[in-house]
Amino acid sequence: MEVKQDETYLQAIDCVPPPYHGMLASLPEGHDIEEVRLRAGRPPTVKRLGGERETGLPPVSAELLRDILSRAARYSVHSYADSLRHGFLTLAGGHRLGVCGTAVMENGEVSGIRGISSLNLRVARQIEEAGSEIAPLENGKPCSMLLLAPPGLGKTTLLRELARRVSDSGLSVAVADERCEIAALSSGRPQFEVGACTDVIEGCGKKEAAMMLLKTMSPALLVVDEITAPEDVEAVALCAHCGVSVLASAHARDLEDLRKRALYRTLLKLGLFERAVVISLEDGRRKYQIETL
User: Fold this and answer.
1) b/e string for 53-86 if b means 16 or more Cβ within 10 A?
2) For the segment 218-274, what is each residue's pLDDT rounded down to a tens digit?
């Protein structure tokens, strides 16, 4: 019996060549697959909200991994060198291909990855009901919120949805989309719904994007994903000095985990964020806990 898959999942696995594309497309749980993991010498696995499992498909070869990366990079891997040195490549539709292997070092920094050992296809989905219990506005003004969760629990999905709701309320929203995952522009148009009053700069660092957006677009809310470096904290500091609300995310299990790290202690000292939203998994469903900062 033929399995009908959703278009989002099929778009995410478009870079996988036959016959593996057909085998992955036939998986019955494709509508809620969040990641497809491909490791040299091992059968493909899929990750859903409940965890990762083997598919029972034939083991993946190193040649297949190289072919997938080439197809994902449109047979011009060198054109994606800057992204690949950070270990990923953004695909059409905002999906992401994570890359592991042997790092190539130049002047003490990673310049690329060779000898590909595994790939991770992350499926980007728009879930408009995500965080429906969270009020992104207070007295007509966007709340500055920090979304917290370990990887894979839907920080970007919730970030996108909260930004859309603020934008559709008539307030100007600016998105610093460093990894091209929040809006996923194609020919200048977002492939995700990010709201009627949203402007996007993608593909550059958060600090540089924030400076441009604050100077030119006069946003009520600036949206940035995954604060991971001092330069990202500087982007938030710019907003604090300008009186602009910020919606951002960070890798942490909860507030206690967040405060253990020097980078995030510096972030919190800015005093910009009013709330934290902690995302966790409970009984197979995402739970959102709102904390006052």
Assistant:
1) eebebeebeeebbbebbeebbeeebeebeebbbe
2) 999 999 999 999 999 999 999 988 999 999 999 999 999 999 999 999 999 999 999
